[in-house]
Design a protein that fits this description.
The chain is α/β, with parallel strands linked by helices. The protein has one domain. It has seven helices and eleven strands.
């Protein structure tokens, strides 16, 4: 079954139109995330996954220091202390970073990042990162060694990693799944700026169904797992909500 989405971005359409279950990959063992961070490494520890939604504008990221943190895409710039920097798009993130489209500071911060740089392996070679296999498109992951599902977005993949590491609870930051309107009347898709190309809100909305399906499956296989969205105004409504001020001091 294929998913259709209105987008002029060829890379987005390529990802969203991949067939379910026909693209499992294996990774070089010497660069496998599982080798450095085995399943269950964060068992019963709380974890924060930092997305890029505009709700994080003005947030004091230092409040996350000392916590288990997975920074998605450019969130590594605000969370240089994160355990993991995760990305799944070589073209729209890695190449833009290394080509200097985000600036020299962002490039050097990527190179000097002290945590684990993790890329979902889709037969694209990326230097100096660890790989996690691509198991499929959607579904519950059971082992980093067997692989995670893409969900067509990095937030979904980061959540899959946290599940395999057995973190609990898992807190979501910046998972807005919608844009905001700024003072110029323009849509804002991230709390940070600088992406060379704009991603329409319709693409973001297409991610919500995948998270809802995952939540439904987790209620069967991981009944004690709590996934808590720390933006009560988020369009992602399938997980329970919490407030940042009640979790971080």
């Amino acid at each position: 079954m294929r998913v259709s989405v209105r987008s002029n971005d060829k890379r987005v359409r390529e990802i969203l139109n991949l067939k379910v279950g026909d693209y499992k990959t294996t990774v070089p063992q010497s660069r496998s995330l599982h080798r450095y961070l085995p399943d269950g490494s964060w068992k019963r520890q709380r974890c924060f996954i930092v997305g890029g939604g505009p709700s994080l504008k003005g947030f004091d990221f230092k409040r996350l220091e000392g916590e288990r943190v997975i920074a998605i895409n450019r969130a590594y710039l605000d969370c240089p202390f994160a355990d993991i920097m995760y990305f799944m798009d070589k073209n729209r993130f890695y190449r833009w970073t290394m080509d200097g489209k985000f600036g020299e500071k962002a490039k050097q911060a990527f190179i000097n990042f002290n945590g684990l740089r993790v890329f979902i392996y889709m037969n694209h070679e990326v230097p100096d990162v660890l790989y996690v296999p691509r198991a499929g498109r959607r579904g519950v992951p059971f082992s980093l060694q067997d692989g995670i599902n893409t969900g067509t977005n990095s937030g979904y993949g980061a959540l899959q990693i946290a599940i395999c590491l057995q973190a609990n609870p898992i807190y979501l930051l910046g998972f807005d799944m919608k844009h905001e309107i700024n003072y110029d009347g323009k849509e804002v898709q991230n709390y940070h700026s600088g992406y060379p190309h704009y991603q329409p809100e319709s693409v973001v909305h297409s991610f919500i169904k995948g998270f809802a399906e995952l939540k439904s499956e987790l209620q069967v296989s991981h009944r004690s797992l709590r996934i808590i969205n720390l933006n009560p105004d988020s369009a992602l409504r399938c997980f329970e909500f919490g407030h940042i001020k009640e979790v971080l001091w």
